[in-house]
Amino acid sequence: MTTIEQAPERVAIVTGGSGGIGGAVARRLAADGMKVVVHYAGSAERAKEVVESITAAGGEASAVPGDVAEAGEVERLFDVTEERYGRVDVVVNTAGIMLLAPVAEMDLDAFDRMHRINVRGAFVVSQLAARRLRKGGALVNISTSVTRLQQPTYGAYAATKGAVEAMTLILAREMRGRDITVNAVAPGPTATPLFLDGKSEQLINQIASAPPLERLGTPEDIAEAVAFLAGPGRWVNGQVLYTNGGIA
Could you tell me if 14 and 78 are in contact, meaning their C-beta atoms sit under 8 angstroms apart? Predict the structure, then answer.
């Protein structure tokens, strides 16, 4: 009698998993059968809500806090994940902040804060993922379509995401021989609290009319693209996937 060995369940870490896009990604990967570690920095309650929504749907998840820009805390995130679930197969790095101002008026302290989280944080997470992802794994970083749209007031933010794209594409080449894919997803305007905050209904409607599909993206739209790269999209590697309804 021949026994068929079951493939082990895959395990994903989602940084910024308490946010709008991060939460949607965590739930989508869990729906694909992955065990998910929901990383958060400031909102334990929102992270708890994401975990509870996953477990209520029959999935398995837990929350772990940490600062993505601190190597020791990211290492602990990976350690805890391996202790609880035995492996790390997928890392999705959604953690980031967006601070807007014209280049001439951008406060440098604000720029440094954004650079620390968006660039240093992405680098630290990518570095640990490169060291600890298992064969067949995937790293997905989050960029932005603004790197191509060149919208005023987004200069500092787009600069941080341009750096994320550069490190993502180079890391994909450095992972030769490991059977690990490294890609970035670049969302367009997406209806998250971060995006909607402070915008008038008129401005939101104006932005929503820009894509040929004539709507804002949803966190679930972005999660679908991430899930493809984290799962079946094994022949997509070293790419930036613009997920924006055709706006750019």
Answer: no
Token digits for 223? Answer: 């999660």
Query: Residue 66 and residue 58: Cα distance in Å, rounded?
Result: 26
Predicted confidence band at 1 (pLDDT cuts at 50, 70, 90)? very low
- Rg, the chain, Cα only: 18
- pLDDT at 193 (0 to 100): 81
The tokens of 67 are what? 């600062």
Q: Where are the beta strands (DSSP E) in 118-213?
A: 138-142, 181-187
Residue 133: Cβ within 10 Å count: 24
* 105 DSSP 8-state letter: G
Catalytic residue numbers, as ranges: 157
**CA separation (Å) from 227 to 3, 25, 31, 179, 184?**
30, 7, 10, 17, 12
Which residues lie across from 11 on neighbouring strands?
Answer: 35
Q: Which two tokens stand for residue 78?
A: 């990976």
Sign of CA dihedral 153, 170, 246, 189: negative
- Whole-model pTM above 0.85? yes
Cα–Cα dist 236/241, whole Å: 9
Write down the H helix ranges in the chain. Answer: 20-31, 44-56, 71-85, 108-115, 121-132, 146-149, 155-174, 193-196, 201-208, 219-230
Residue 185 bridge partners (DSSP): 142, 241
* Domains defined for the chain, CATH in brackets: 11-190+219-242 (3.40.50.720)
Phi then psi dihedrals of residue 234, to 5 deg: -70, -20
Which residues partner with 15 through β-bridges? 93
Phi, psi of 185 (to 5 degrees): -110, 130
d(CA 87, CA 214) in angstroms, rounded, equals 41
Question: Per-residue pLDDT averaged across 54-67, rounded?
Answer: 98
